[in-house]
Every structure is written in C-alpha cells, then in structure tokens.
Design a protein that fits this description.
This protein has 16 helices and 38 strands. With 648 residues, the protein is α/β, with parallel strands linked by helices. The longest helix has 18 residues, at 351-368. It is globular. The structure holds manganese (II) ion (MN) and magnesium ion.
Amino acid sequence: MTAIERYLLSRRDLLRGAGGLSAYAVLPDLPSGGDVIRLRLLETSDLHMFIYDYDYYRDRPDPTLGFAKTAQLIAEARGQAPNCLLFDNGDTIQGNPLSDFVASGQSVPTDGVHPMFRVMNMLRYDAATLGNHEFNYGLDFLGKATAGAHFPILSANITWTDGRPYAPPFAILERDLIGRDGRRHRLKIGVIGFLPPQITVWDKARLQSRVETQDIVAAAERYVPALRRRCDLLIALCHSGIGTVVPGGRAENAALQLAAVRGIDAVFTGHSHRVFPGPDYAGIPGVDAERGTLAGIPAVMPGFWGSHLGVIDLNLQKQGTEWAVAGFSVEARPIYRRDGSKVVSLADDDQAVLTAAAPEHEAAKAYVGRPIGTFSAPVTSYFSFVADDASLALISQAQLSYVKPLLAGTEHASLPLLSAASAMKAGPAPDAYTDIAAGPVALRNIADLYTYPNLVTAVRVNGVQIREWLERSAAFFDRLDPTVSELQKLISGRHPAYNFDVIAGLTYAIDVTQPARYDQSGRFCDPTAWRVTDIRLEGRPLADDQEVIVVTNNYRAAGGGNFPDLNGANTILQGPDTNRDAIIAYVERMGTIDPKPLGVWRFVPPDHRLTATFESSPVGRSYLSAYPSIHYLAEAAGGLARYAIDLG
Ligand code: MN
Ligand code: MG
C-alpha cells in the first residue's frame, strides 16, 4: 500500500458540511428520477504564498489578495453545499518576501511545517498539484516543504531522469457523499495533476539532470483511460492556462487541449493569473467564456494571490451502475470588487489562518524592513516598458557589477560586457507595479523591483544574435500606422513586460511603424521585418560578428520567453546568487544611489506627429515629470489609467 492509499483509507469516513436534504430542497435544475448527488468542487490557484492580505513591498494591508480572505469564501461555499472537495492548483509556496524568507532557512517553524501547508492543512484540502514556481527554490526545499502537507500533491508529467514519477501522478479519493435521498453514496473521485513542461527550461539550473517533464496532453492520454475506469469521476488539476495548440507539443497553456481528452469530467486551470469564466477568454474556439467550459467540460481559473475562489457545482446522476455528470455550473467568486478607483472587500479575514501564520509573517516583515541604502530619486515600473528608465538601469548596473569580477582572468574578460533587464512587475492590476520612493531603501524595495528569485546568468552571443534578441523584445509593441493621426494603441492585450528586455551597454532605436519580426510568444513570423535600428556599441555600429557577453537571468538564458538562440547552449556563467541578491549587494556597497536612465533606447521618431496610448497604474501620474513625452489621458477599466506617449 502506498502512502497516498494509506492516507486515503484514513480519511474514508470524511463527510463535509451539513444540511443534506435541506440543501437540495432549494437547488434548481436537478435531474428527476434515480440517485442524484450534488457535488461542489472548490479551487484555489496561484496563491504564491499570499496568506495575509498584506503587501510586503508597500508595507500595508491589501484587500485584493490573501488566502485568509479566500478561506472565508471556502467556509461560505462549504456551508452552502453538503458535499465539497477542495483543491489547490499550484504556484503555492513561492512569490513574495514571506516565501523568500521561509525558503532562506532563517525561519524555523516549531511544528516543522511550511506555513503555507500549515494553513492549507487547517482548511482540509483534498489534493493539490505542483505549479512551475514550486521549483524556484530547488528540489530539496520543495521536498521538505511538501512533506508537511496532509493531502496528496500530484503531478503526472514530471519524472526523475530514470523515469520514476517525481510526485504521485494521480490520487483516487474515496468519499461518502450525501445524495438527494439523504443517503450516503461512496464515490471514487480521481484527481490528476499537470504542470507546464517548461519548468526544465525556466529552472534549468536547479533541475538539470534531476527531473524531466512531459507534454501535458500526452501524459493525460497515458494515464486517463485506465484511471477513469477505476473512478466514478475524474478531475484534472492543470497548472496551465487556456491557449492554442503549439506545433511539436509541450504547450505551456494546454488546459483547453486537456479538457478534450476523453474521460476528464472537470478541469481546474491556473498559471495565467486570469479569471475564467470571464471576458478574457471570449471568442476562443472551444471555449465558452460565459458558462465556463473548455471543450464542453466545466472549467474554472481563480485569478491569483487568492483573489478568487473557483467553484464548480456538478449534478451527478446514477445511470445503471455508473455516475454521470447530468448538469453543472461554474463560477469564480472574488474576494473584492472595484468601484471606480475604490476597492470594496467582499470577504473578511479568517482569523485562524492569520494566527497560524503570524510568527513567519511578523518575522518576514522585520526581515524585509531592514534598511540597506538610500535612493536619491524614485524607482518605479509605471513607464519602464515604454521609455528608457531608471529602474532597468539599476538592475543592469548591479548585474554588471556582480559579473565583471567573476569574468576577470577568463577568456571572456576582454569582450564587451552588456546587461539585459526587464520590468518584472508591471500590471495588470493597478497595484502590481514596482514603486520605491526616494529616501531610505529596505530589502523589501529590492524584492519589489526584482520579484523573481532568478539566478544571475551570463551568455556569450554575437551581433547577429543581439539584433534578434532586441527584435524579439520589440515584439512587445503593436504596429502603428504613421499615416493615421488619431490615437493608436501602442500595446494591446496584456502580454508580460518581463519579455521586453532592454540591453544596457548598447544604444538603439525601435521603429514601431515597422512590422514585428517575432510574435508575442516569440515565434519568428516575418523574415523581412526589422524594427530595431541604429544598434551601437561604444558609439560604433554593432558588427554582426562582434562577440559580447550579456548578463541576464537563468530564466532567459535557458529559453524563458522563447528568445532566439537563448537555449542554455551559450551560457558561460551561472551565478550561485540571485539577481536580487546582486542588486542588494550593489545598493549596500554604493550606499547612496542616484537612479537615472542610461540612455539605452528610444523610439524612432516618425516623419509626422504620432501619438500612441497604453495602460498603466493611475499612480504613475505623479511621476510624469521624469517622462516628458508621456501624459495622462483618462481612467481605464480594472482600476488602470490610459496614458498617451508622443513618439516624435
Ligand atoms: Mn503563478
Ligand atoms: Mg505558474
């Protein structure tokens, strides 16, 4: 008997909620005749260690996030339904200063349990799956953390390099559920987990030669047929978003394709930090963004950082000896709503959750409050993706100062040393921007600037490869029509600004009236297209065969963001330290820093006046004096603001 099976047996008599028959009395649309069970499935996803409704970067409460609030929605949802199961969909233990503090080993909980799993145990989760960010602190830490979870943590598409599953691929939960007739019915509920196969690229430095990943749909096709025969119902926990098919397989966002695998009855999605059902996914073939189905199967995505609770209600009807889904409804319940620029909280904190994580929360607050230096000007990300900017300059200066001494005496020392940086925190929520005021700087501010625990990495590339790198970055912008005098969108959609790399040490211009050479996913799409012009190194045009060293992070160097020629092969240095630690060391050493742009890039001025619009936080308005070409236009949906930028 496996540990999972033992665990399942020990919980066989578990029965949730109360009310039984009375709950059925008020529920519509139940099929008539035969045995009927109403089963409610609940999902959290992408909690990223936000247990408290607290913004560690700004050092203040934030009602738009926090598992303590989601926990209250969980209690409420359980109170409304006699039969509930609760799942977590991954990206659970990484994502804020609390998670970094716990992973740093400086917090030693007396119960030996990772605080995220401590509070999830309290909420009696039934199962969870691994996300990509679980791997950011390495396998040893992950193993220790998950050991404290009182529920199975699954993943069907990751194996050790010898082929053994890294985690249980699936679990069969046996649950006594109360039917409409008031009787208990023992059901076997299969649960299977999936993660983006790209983790071996994104965390190559930590996973290489240890684990391998498989395509999500291929793994499902391998396990689902036999598993489904052993269960009454099969639920997929898919830490992956809703996207289109990628040639060659290994799609990052494969929830829609997974839903089409025969035998799966419901799909929990995540990873994209969006809400489903909802308008973000309207109009995609195979997706019903109002009803909440993927390939006809009920599916939900509950935002991020605890912002929503995913709820799938199933009506199960016994047909002969088999249970079948006879009806369903899907909902993502928010913990807050926006009323103009105001945030209205829709959930109270679960005090027991707060209390359970209080020791680590308080210690983490003190830890990140430690002063390390002084900035003589603000550092923000409100405009760092549309203008040459001080925040990316600071990241690059720190990266260069970290790597330079490490290259001394090596064959690479004589080559020009450049540095790539991008905005890690730039929406889409109005508070999700880097914002460091002038004055004393604490550790938390550097975590606000560099939010991911990436490792400093350097690659050796030539002039041709630099040109392609910049072209892929420039795909961030829409194409503008220079003959149109009305306002045009500079950035449509909500693609991440962390894929807009700015390479310090060069100067160049971006012509957004030209077509993009790459698409948003990094696919090469137009061999005749060039947007990046006048690339210069030390004032001279960059030669095709000029070799250079570029400092970046392990994510980018190994292929994250799908940048041309960045696949790990040209990595010449993999620092043991994170980029964030390099920035902290730089600020500590400099004492006082005067953040300013380095004059790296500009838009090519068009022949005629051309003004484009983009969205950012309304808070950016108070920093506009540093950006003469940008002005505020109006409020925008979701609490954002619309700005205009003059391109010439
Ligand atoms: Mn996530
Ligand atoms: Mg993820």
